[in-house]
Amino acid sequence: MPTNAPLSGLYRPSLSLLTDLYQLTMAYGYWRKGMQDREAVFHLYFRKPPFAGGYAVCAGLAYAVDWLEQLRFGEEDLAYLGALRGRKGNALFDPAFLDYLRDLRFTCDVDAIAEGTVVFANEPLIRVRGPLLQAQLIETALLTLVNFQTLIATKAARIREAVGPNDQILEFGLRRAQGFDGGLSATRAAYLGGADGTSNVLAGQQFGIPVRGTHAHSWVMAFEDEEEAFDAYADAFPDDSVFLVDTYDTLEGVRNAIRVAQRLRATGHELGGIRLDSGDLTYLSREARRLLDEAGFPQVRIVASNDLDEQLVTALKLEGARIDTWGIGTKLVTAYDQPALGGVYKLAALQRADGSGWDYTVKISEQLAKTSIPGILQVRRYLGANGKPVADMLYNTAEELPADLTIVDPMDPTRRRPVKSEQYRELLEPVFRQGKLVADLPTLQESRERVHQELASFDPSIRRFLNPHVYPVGLEAGLNSFRTQLILEKRAVRPA
Ligand SMILES: Nc1ncnc2c1ncn2[C@@H]1O[C@H](COP(=O)(O)OP(=O)(O)OP(=O)(O)O)[C@@H](O)[C@H]1O
Ligand SMILES: O=P(O)(O)OC[C@H]1O[C@H](OP(=O)(O)OP(=O)(O)O)[C@H](O)[C@@H]1O
Ligand SMILES: O=C(O)c1cccnc1
């Protein structure tokens, strides 16, 4: 049975220490200062889509929800924290703080963009509002869970773009993945983003992802000759055989596969496919297709693998390769060309100590792109007359919106456009209210379908690999002016 607890179903008893030490030292500091319950707002967002692409596919929220639901410091966690020592051998944390952690219950409001949604730079994927100590404490786990899966789901969506709607994508990456969970969560995200199946059996069991596969070169090497190896495999799996044909000589391998396919047919079975794993995949797939068709096996699929990614798939397609199943491992599950998404988690608003309202906060940087956006933000996606997205607007939900809306490019305030459309969708949806899960989370299958629908709804120009069109994401003009003013104020306090 696929699980709704993708993370805690695997790791027990507690994952509350899945964090950086500084979250706990800050928590201790806030507690000592009596600041722990000041209401705060944080946003999790990235500043640039990965792979020099035009978008990202949001993923990892189910893990984040699972982690937040289990957030509770157990006795083992507290004993470990109690034993931590500072440089002079002193206990790092006061025992009274550990008692505080023992009783701590998650009480924040969390709003998030659904997994599988197409998202862009600067858009909060998750907004957390609640007691400062708690909202800060969860930063690292949210980032580790969302950054990686968003990265891999995006990679898979790009591979799907290259492969097209009809061919199959099988994810084969476990052996080259970034460790145990790297392998498992990459498989989940790859499936969400567009893969059709995986060789990863644990992921199949955990998430209900179809498991598929062929066999290794060692299978062929374990027999006297290749044909005997294919025969033996066909005996074991008469209706589920895909033969790896390149161990010695690929086209000889295809001829051996055909002979075994003929014997299978004589006993009422059909060969499923052959796999190519080296050499010129265009030439070999075309030749293999010709041989198979001439022998009366047009339905036998041709699987290809060997360090493939979206660029190679595009090239092979352009060259006229006759591949209909793409086995993609290393470059998918490690996001080889960009191994990390730089998602960040920034404080955007803090209640004043006297409770008289919000103080908005910005982290300023030499680069405008790295300067954060203050407010309690929502992302509004405007749709054109044809129902297709035309622009996204970030706005501060704590301020009233003017009747005439204008969005401003946060990177270039001279670029602004009025918002004419009446049709829109608010992307951040309630997930937790005061620590209680209020969302009915979609299944992995539903999230996967969402990716497909979302990507189809955008102009293809944002999906292309080379110089993709930049989809307009702007700040509501009032928010933009306010942010500029706040930046100027923060800069003004620095001596010239
Ligand atoms: N027609 C083609 N056009 C572009 N790239 C191709 C083509 N065919 C294969 N490739 C890619 O070229 C790279 C090298 O493949 P090749 O089989 O020559 O070397 P290899 O991986 O070292 O082989 P082996 O697995 O036998 O060691 C792989 O990433 C493969 O996917
Ligand atoms: O190339 P990737 O996209 O990473 O896809 C997975 C690779 O893993 C296997 O190779 P490996 O040499 O590990 O084992 P094998 O003997 O089964 O080919 C398989 O043959 C693929 O080439
Ligand atoms: O089943 C396969 O063909 C397979 C599985 C893992 C890695 N490479 C290939």
How would you explain this protein's 3D organization?
- GO terms for molecular function: nicotinamide phosphoribosyltransferase activity; nicotinate phosphoribosyltransferase activity.
- The protein is 37% helix and 19% strand.
- With 496 residues, the chain is an alpha/beta fold.
- The chain has a seven-stranded antiparallel beta sheet with strand order 13-12-1-5-3-19-20.
- The site of adenosine-5'-triphosphate has 12 residues, from helix 12 and helix 13.
Question: Could you give a short description of this structure?
Answer:
The chain has 16 helices and 21 strands. It has 496 residues and is α/β, with parallel strands linked by helices.
Provide keyphrases for this structure.
binds nicotinic acid; TIM Barrel; globular; binds adenosine-5'-triphosphate; binds 1-O-pyrophosphono-5-O-phosphono-alpha-D-ribofuranose; 21 strands; single chain
Q: What's the main sheet like? A: 7 strands, antiparallel
How many E strands? Answer: 21
What is the radius of gyration? 26 Å
CATH architecture of the domain at 154-332: Alpha-Beta Barrel
Q: What is the overall number of helices?
A: 16
- Let me know the CATH homologous superfamily of the domain at 154-332: Aldolase class I
Backbone shape:
globular
Report low-confidence residues grouped into runs of 5 or more. Answer: none
Strand share of the residues?
15-25%
Structural class: alpha/beta
Give the strand order, joined by hyphens, for the main sheet: 13-12-1-5-3-19-20
CATH topology descriptor of the domain at 154-332: TIM Barrel
Question: What is the rounded distance between the termini?
Answer: 63 Å
Mean pLDDT: 96
Name the ligand types. Answer: adenosine-5'-triphosphate, 1-O-pyrophosphono-5-O-phosphono-alpha-D-ribofuranose, nicotinic acid
GO molecular function, one term: nicotinamide phosphoribosyltransferase activity
Keywords: Glycosyltransferase, Ligase, Phosphoprotein, Pyridine nucleotide biosynthesis, Transferase
GO biological process, one term: NAD+ biosynthetic process via the salvage pathway
Function: Catalyzes the first step in the biosynthesis of NAD from nicotinic acid, the ATP-dependent synthesis of beta-nicotinate D-ribonucleotide from nicotinate and 5-phospho-D-ribose 1-phosphate.
